[in-house]
Amino acid sequence: MIRITIVLFLLLSVGLHAQEKYAEVTRDAPIRKDSLSSSSVIERVKSGVDLPLLEDRLFGTGYLKVRTPEDKVGYIYKSRVRVKTKPSSEVTSNVDQNGNLELHIINIGQGDAMIIRCPDGNHELLIDAAELNAGFRYSGSQTEFRNYMTDFQSKDNPIEVVVATHPHSDHIAGMSWIINNYTVGKYVDNGMPNTSGTYKSLERELDEHAINRLRLTDSLVPKIDFCPRADVNARILRPEGFDEPNIDPNNYSVIVRVDYGSSSFLFTGDAEVEMENKLIEDQNTVGLLDVDFLKVGHHGSHSSSKKPFLDVVTPAIAAISCGAETVGTNKGHKHPRMITVNALIPYLKNRNGMETTLEAYDKANRKWDRVSTKAALYITNNDGDLIFLSDGNEIWRKGDQ
Known about the structure:
Blueprint: H1 2-17, E1 22-25, E2 29-32, E3 41-45, E4 50-52, E5 63-67, E6 73-77, E7 81-84, E8 101-105, E9 114-117, E10 124-127, H2 141-152, E11 159-163, H3 169-172, H4 175-181, E12 184-189, H5 197-208, E13 213-215, E14 232-237, E15 255-260, E16 263-267, H6 273-281, E17 293-295, H7 307-313, E18 317-320, H8 330-333, H9 338-344, E19 356-362, E20 367-373, E21 377-379, H10 380-383, E22 386-390, E23 395-397
Parallel strand pairs: 10-11, 11-12, 12-13, 16-17, 17-18, 18-21
Antiparallel strand pairs: 1-4, 1-7, 2-3, 5-6, 8-9, 8-22, 9-10, 14-15, 15-16, 19-20, 22-23
Organism: Pseudotenacibaculum haliotis
Protein name: MBL fold metallo-hydrolase
InterPro entries: ComA-like_MBL (IPR035681), Competence_DNA_uptake (IPR052159), Metallo-B-lactamas (IPR001279), RibonucZ/Hydroxyglut_hydro (IPR036866)
């Protein structure tokens, strides 16, 4: 009898101290009967719903086992949810409009779209604007971008600074929509012309709206301080040789560093090893590369994030914006690459929560492969929309604290 009582007491103690986990749905999603993309859909859930997490591990190629609102057991893909220890009704927001800088990396597929909000809650910096929906590009990219921006920012709230890192469509396709729907205080691009219809249409919009436009090629580096606070600084890094003749547009990307207090962020567009080397070799820029957060260049391609560059940057957190492996242009690009994922992991701190499985293309073996890690490497195709916060000292992903 004494032994049974002790066992029951221990079981009760474990139950009291165990934290029930929930999967917060961040985007409308199907719940499947099994942990396979081909499995039948048993229920569909809307963004904002909390689903009890039944097991603290991943199934199949990245599914979580949950209990549905209709009290069924099913599987939801990890990039559609955020795991947490309390339901939304008991969670107080991490966002303090008077204290935290916000970085939003929007899950728009194969492309880039990021917006940063000043800790005062009322000044923004937009970097790039997603891919085209049309044809073979990336279905739904513009729809996701416009929906996110509309929810994030009212159209009567100006965007202080907009940066188009370079004129490829997966970075500028939504710029015309931005110009037509928001007041833009300052528009900065690299000054490189392009023959695409997307670029030509954007040029007309910039002219017609008389946008205050600055170029990377201006004699003085354009000022991009979007936030009036003294402890927030944004600058462009322009190394020697950035504008050499016949340079690839990727290596002509506008490179942006943002600081809030002692926390720092680096955004490199599609910069490849050529630009990384220029940044390292120029004494005016090398000292500005060591940051806490790296938005990984060129969607995690093998052409970027080389060891000499990472040795200088030493990021604690990194994020990759890329599309699904079989969708649109990523059928050919195959981003991210496993060599890049493996190169980044040793530099990064551990993320909170469970170990996650990242998918990347292994060029050496000509196949998509997976790596399980707790490293703070976030990929939009794996983690969905990404929101990072900084209080001026630390940077964390919203929901991870």
